[in-house]
Write a structure and sequence with these properties.
Layout (H helix, E strand, L loop, with lengths): L1 H18 L7 H15 L12 H28 L4 H17 L4 H17 L4 H35 L2
Helix pairs in contact: 1-2, 1-6, 2-3, 2-6, 3-4, 3-6, 4-5, 5-6
Length: 164
């Protein structure tokens, strides 16, 4: 039974890592589920000699929550940092949500980009070149959000394997 649970934990970790790229899957929460499996059923196996502590699990829970929230906020922040107006930031957030719902997985990227671009052009009347900078900021925010999710999920997969 322990081997079966170890395989399940590793699968959670791998699918969690894939979920960082495929927006249909919640990457870090799935990776954390792999840690939970190891913690609850395989913790301190005779071979590894190490046990996962409750503090370790709470830290990774906080990281998982923070990374999951940041993934939705970061594109809007990058839009703002690249000179985007409040309308571009709101457009980026709205585009991300609309893209996620109607056109997954690529709709998140396109939605954030187009939302920021259209927010600047339509509401603020900015020219295309100026609006494009805000939209590029939104895209860079998406890349950054994906990157932090991959780092977190990759580290959780590392710990899943380490604690087997």
């Amino acid at each position: 039974m322990e081997i079966f649970l170890e395989i399940i934990a590793i699968l959670f970790g791998v699918v969690g890592l894939l979920g960082c790229i495929l927006p249909v899957l919640p990457g870090p929460p799935l990776s954390y589920a792999g840690l939970v499996v190891i913690y609850l059923w395989c913790n301190g196996a005779a071979d590894s000699g190490e046990a996962i502590t409750g503090k370790f699990m709470l830290v990774w829970l906080a990281i998982t929550i923070a990374v999951s929230i940041l993934d939705y906020v970061v594109p809007a922040l990058f839009t703002k940092w690249t000179g985007g107006s409040k309308e571009a930031v709101r457009g980026s957030l709205a585009g991300t949500i609309i893209g996620l719902v109607f056109f997954p997985p690529f709709g998140i990227i396109a939605g954030a980009f187009l939302g920021a671009l259209l927010g600047e052009i339509i509401i603020n009347g900015k020219k295309l070149g100026e609006s494009l900078l805000s939209a590029i900021g939104s895209f860079l925010g998406f890349l950054f959000g994906t990157g932090i999710k991959m780092v977190a999920s990759g580290m959780m997969l590392y710990y899943i394997i380490k604690f087997l």
